[in-house]
Amino acid sequence: REEKNLAAQDGAASDRFRGALEQLLRGSKESKPAPADPGLIDRFKSLGYIGYSPTTPAGPGGNLPNPKSKLEIYNLTMAALELSENGKPVEALDQLARAETLDPDVTQVHFLKGSILGGMGKYQEAIPALQRTLKLNPRFVMARFKLALAYLREGDSARAEGALQEVLREEPQNFRALHNLAATAYSQGDFAR
Fold it and tell me: Is 5 helix (H, G, I), strand (E, B) or coil?
């Protein structure tokens, strides 16, 4: 559990990140992204810091959000993921519901909820969760792909095709999107596509 402020352990890195963040908030084009630890990126994604933009970002020198304020959400999300992987989707959804009450704008909570519901065959319930994920992060390709699959399972091939086309705009070589588009066209007797 991360309950201590670790910035003091590596003051130089902390200062470098704060400077780059302030340049970014000012709209400066001079800042270059620093190499990031993949584990740190995963934590930030799980906490909702990567995947959507806050509606009111702090200005230069302003107060930045405290990642520790989302620690409970992170723990609930990780518990839900573990429960889901261990074949306990109902319990996982309970954890996600608790996380959602703490902050309704964490992308990963909605994505995981949609994924679990889809895995349970509850596509009508998965669709709004995946749509909310995409509202928070329109470029979340896997969420768009899972939304397309939910549309397909619900028999809405037009919406599914639209979502798959959007996946391909982001990732033109996405084999699964290409495969599902071809399968949809084949099932409709459209062999030329």
Answer: coil
